[in-house]
Amino acid sequence: MQKIGVIGATGMLGHHVAKLVQSDPDHELFVIHRKNSNLSTISDLTFQARIADLDDKDSLITAFEGLDYVLNCGAYYPTVPRPLKEELNIAKKQINNFVAAIKENSVKKALYLGGAIAIPKSKTGIANEDEIYTQSPKNKSAYVQVKWIMDKIAREAGANGIPIVIGIPSMTFGEYDYGPSTGRIITNTVNQTLPGYVQGDRNVVYAGDAARGLLSACFKGKIGHRYLITGENVSMKTLIETIIRLENIDQMPKSVSLGLAKLISKIKITKYKFFGGELPLLDDTAIAVMSAGQFLNGDKAKEELGYTPQTTLEQAIRRTIDWFISQNYISKP
Fold first, then answer.
1. Where is each NAD-dependent epimerase/dehydratase domain found (predicted)?
2. Beta-carbon neighbour count of residue 13 at 10 Å?
3. Which of 131, 158, 260, 284 is the one with CA 20 to 30 A from 226?
4. β-strands 232-235, 164-169 pairing
5. Residues 240/253, Cβ–Cβ less than 8 Å
6. Which helix (H) or strand (E) holds 6?
7. How far from 68 is each of 46, 111, 171, CA to CA, in Å?
C-alpha cells in the first residue's frame, strides 16, 4: 500500500488528484491541509487528514512522515496586491519549506505543481519544457516573478538530488473550481458579465486529465525535470466562441488590446489599494496570464509518462459549465 499525500485537495486540481489516488486500491490517501481549511468541499473523499502549513517547515516535516509520495497542488500565487519583494519572500519560503520537508523524510518522490507562465515565450510559437529563463523575467508582474522563482528553486533542488518533479498543467477547466479560478472566464462569459477579452494563444486541459498527468509525473517523472500536462492548443477567440456556442449565447464579447486591459487593471488596483472593497477581477495575475499565453507542446509527457488527454475542449467546457450551474456560479433562467 503506497501512502500518498496531497496538498491543496480543496482546490480544483488537488481534488481531482485526490480522487484519482483514492480510486486505486493500492493507494492510501492523506490530505495535508491548513488548520482552518473548509473540508466540506471534499466530503466525497475518504482520507486521513494531516494538518500543516506551507509557511511552517516543521509542520510539513511532521505531515510528510511515513509518506511514499507527496503532490503539492497548493503552490503559492498572488491573490491580493502586495509589494513584489513581499510576494517573492512568501513564495521562496513556501517552496524551500516544501523541499526541506522532502529532504527530512524518506519520501520516494514529490511533485511541485508549477505554472506554464514560468516558461518563456517560444520563438517557434509552441513552447516546451526546455524553454528556461536564464535570469529574472523582464515582466515584473508578481505572478510571473513568483512562478519563475519557485520553478527555479524546484529545478535546482532536483539537480541537487532532492526527489522532486515539476508538473506543469496548462489552462485548466473542470469541476471543484471553487472561487472560481481559471473557470472565471467561463462563468463571466455565460453570465454575460465578461467586459472583453484579450486575443492570444492558449492550451486548455480538463482537470481530470491534468490529474492523471500529474500523478504519472510524480510516479514516473525524472527527478528535477519539468513535464507539461497539456490538452488542446486554441486561440482565446475560439475558446470564447466555443463557450458561447455551447450555451447558445447570442452576443460575442469584444476583444480589447492588452494595453487597454493593463490600463483598466492599473486603475482598478489603485482604487482597491486606496479605498478597499472587492478585489478587482482584472488584476495583476489576470493581466500576466493574458500576456504570457502561448501554445504548448506536450510530447515529453506523452513519450516519458504515457500521458495523453482523453477529454476534448468541448467536453471539458461542458463538464465545467454543468458543475458551475450545480453550484450556482452560473445563473440559468
1. 6-229
2. 28
3. 284
4. unpaired
5. yes
6. strand 2-7
7. 18, 12, 29
Q: Angle 98-47-74 (CA atoms, 0-180°, nearest 5)?
A: 30
Rg of the chain over CA atoms, in angstroms?
A: 19
Model pTM?
0.93
Please check whether residue 94 is in contact with residue 76, taking contact to mean a CB–CB distance below 8 angstroms.
yes
Cα–Cα distance, 163 to 127 (Å, whole number): 25
The number of residues in the chain equals 333
> Is 2-179+204-233+297-313 a CATH 3.40.50.720 domain?
yes
DSSP 122: P
State the Cα–Cα distance between residues 54 and 90, nearest whole angstrom: 10
Closest to 32 measured CA to CA, from 51, 18, 46: 51
Helix axes 12-22, 207-220, angle to 10 degrees: 60
Contacts of 120 (CB under 8 A, 6+ apart): 127, 131, 132, 133, 137
**pLDDT tens for each residue of 13-72:** 999 999 999 999 999 999 999 999 999 999 999 999 999 999 999 999 999 999 999 999
- Supply the DSSP string of 16-41, one letter for each residue: HHHHHHHTSTTEEEEEEE-TT--GGG
Q: Is 277 exposed, middle or buried (0-12, 13-18, 19+ CB in 10 A)?
A: exposed
Place of cell 519560503: 93
Contacts with 320 (C-beta within 8 Å, 6 or more apart), sequence order: 173, 174, 175, 177, 183, 186
Q: Return the SS3 of 167.
A: strand
